[in-house]
């Protein structure tokens, strides 16, 4: 998992300019997309995205339609058109004692699950398993179709934990489905990518504010975020993959991380920057401006 997030850092140095980004470069105004991931994972995450949506900020929400709480997320997002909705393509279940499995059913995708019928917890476990690409396609199709049948307007897809884009073969499946359903793919529009996930909770807000205050003129940027309201539900979750999300004695810290990211977006210091330091966009805005034909796989995979 740590290796995966080290690769993310490399993506910060790669920018492929799309027509929209080229226009922004000429105007010297940075553009920023906020992408909140893991929506629908649980009630605490949904309440966090609800609070963020009620602030009026335009942002993009990546929903895990394989998770038990996705229906509550659908209700929330239907009431907030300022939020662009994506499918957070899910092939992993990483929380101890809180797992999920295929939308298509374990019998339809047996190579994607463990003996209990749940997705594997890590990218390494998935890649070393005997997964079948046709079952991956079947499962991701089921997730996208559940999303489309929810009544939400779906704009884009992106991979949970990077899994659905982790190899050229998996990437080909994701790109095929995006074409089939006429959806964008996050990071395929030339975005400079930044994730707040691996930043220590103690310095997270400071690093985020420094980043958005110093975006390059004319650049197109996306920040990956994970928000939630701190609660007993969220505080009980132990990430099986990351030492960063747990204390040295194994106590979970994911709740602190996600509440901190929610707080920094709602901070009185952030909103005044919009229109001064950057233009705030959603993936729906970006696709409307550029069209899907402008998509291109990034040179470095986040």
Total helices: the number is 11
- What is the CATH fold-level name? TIM Barrel
Q: Main β-sheet, in a few words? A: 8 strands, parallel
Give the CATH H-level superfamily: Glycoside hydrolase/deacetylase
* Alpha-carbon distance between the two ends: 13 Å
CATH class: Alpha Beta
Radius of gyration based on Cα positions: 18 Å
Binned strand content: 5-15%
Structural class: alpha/beta
CATH architecture: Alpha-Beta Barrel
Q: Which runs of at least 5 residues are low in confidence (pLDDT < 50)?
A: 1-19
Number of strands: 8
Overall pLDDT score: 92
Number of domains: 1
Shape: globular
Helix fraction by DSSP (H/I, runs of at least 4): 25-40%
Q: Could you explain the architecture of this structure?
A:
The protein is α/β, with parallel strands linked by helices. Helices cover 36% and strands 14% of the residues. The protein has eleven helices and eight strands. Strands 1, 2, 3, 4, 5, 6, 7 and 8 form an eight-stranded parallel sheet that branches. The longest helix is centred in the middle third of the chain and has 17 residues, at 133-149.
